[in-house]
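Section 3.1 - Work completed
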Amino acid sequence: MDIKTSKIELVKIILNIDNDDFIKKVVDFINREKSDFWSDLTELEKEEISKGIEQLNMGERTSYKDALKKIS
């Protein structure tokens, strides 16, 4: 069964469920699965990203070419 067929079958099953608690659990599960990547980062990674954004906002930038030269 391909993914499109699986999705259609899942929708059919959900449409036939009358249990509100179960539907809420399914919705909660789906919302957790599509969580923001930010919550999966370590504190150090979050700090580094925030620092980089702050530097960009202050006009401190490195061109893509220069960045490639540094890592090559």
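Second construct:
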Amino acid sequence: MSGKNSRKRSATDREYLASESDKGIDFSDIPRLGADFWRKATLRMPQRKESVTLRLDPDVLAWFRRSKRGYQTRINAVLRSYVQAAKKVS
């Protein structure tokens, strides 16, 4: 987590959440995970990203930044989609 984001105060009311009981949570639409699920489960760590300097047109960068958090992840997703489409063509 970058230092810039970690300084922002969360809007989550943690005191309220801590005071609430879990008994009121409706789990009816979530299937229970049995022992079989956990026996077969594997830990998947996210792929490490490589930090690069990239020159973008100001209007393109502004468009992605308008969505605030996660704009770099969205740029990566767009580039990944392009690479996958290009692989299908060649």
